[in-house]
Amino acid sequence: MIMIDQPADFPVAVGDVLIPETDFPTDTQIGSQRSPEGSWSHPAPAPPPTTADLNAHLSAIRRTHETGGVSVTIGPDVIEVATDHEGKTNLLGARVAAQEVPGFTTDWSAINGIFPLDAAGIIALSDAVLAHINGAFVAQAAVIADIDAGTLTTPAEVEAAFAAAVAAA
């Protein structure tokens, strides 16, 4: 990069016009425009999010929570269970086998290791994952009601309300 010392009164090119730096207002921001008469206009502030925007944001938050995994205690073990689509599909298959195959056992591969589980352990794991997922949907429904009522109007408020609703579920 080449640095050039520039005198304070050196003009700056703006569009096709050279303007001395002293003509710039101190509150100029990206998108500001100078009229031919010399006055400055600033861009309009972004509109507030719509109900549809907030509901879309909420849906993304719920999906992240739903698929972010859950900790489940089975006996002495705390098992970190993947709740993405692959993890849920694997657990569904194991639950069906646990219900249908007498003496079913498996070495369940979790985020934090391998855990030997019998049919009762797989069913308990599956029930806990279902409760986690259902809790996310219950929390989402509660927050949708607040968005629709107009009590939540910003993404930050939606995030806080969802976190509180999940904690209460």
Number of helices: 4
Instruction: Give the uncertain stretches in residue-range form.
Output: none
Question: How widely separated are the two ends?
Answer: 57 Å
Query: What gyration radius follows from the Cα positions, in whole Å?
Result: 28 Å
Please report the total strand number as a whole number: 8
Residue share in β-strands: 15-25%
Q: What's the arrangement of strands in the largest beta sheet?
A: 1-2
N-to-C series of helices and strands? EEEEHEEHEEHH
Task: Name the helicity range.
Answer: 40-55%
Q: Average pLDDT value? A: 86
Class from secondary-structure proportions: alpha+beta
Shape: elongated
Largest sheet: 2 strands, antiparallel
Question: Can you characterise this structure?
Answer:
The protein has helices at residues 51-66, 85-100, 119-149, 155-168, and strands spanning 11-14, 17-20, 33-34, 40-41, 70-74, 77-81, 105-110, 113-118. It is α+β, with helices and mostly antiparallel strands. The strands form four sheets. The chain has a two-stranded antiparallel ribbon with strand order 1-2. It has a two-stranded antiparallel sheet with strand order 3-4. A two-stranded antiparallel ribbon has the order 5-6. It starts with 10 loop residues before the first strand and ends with a helix.
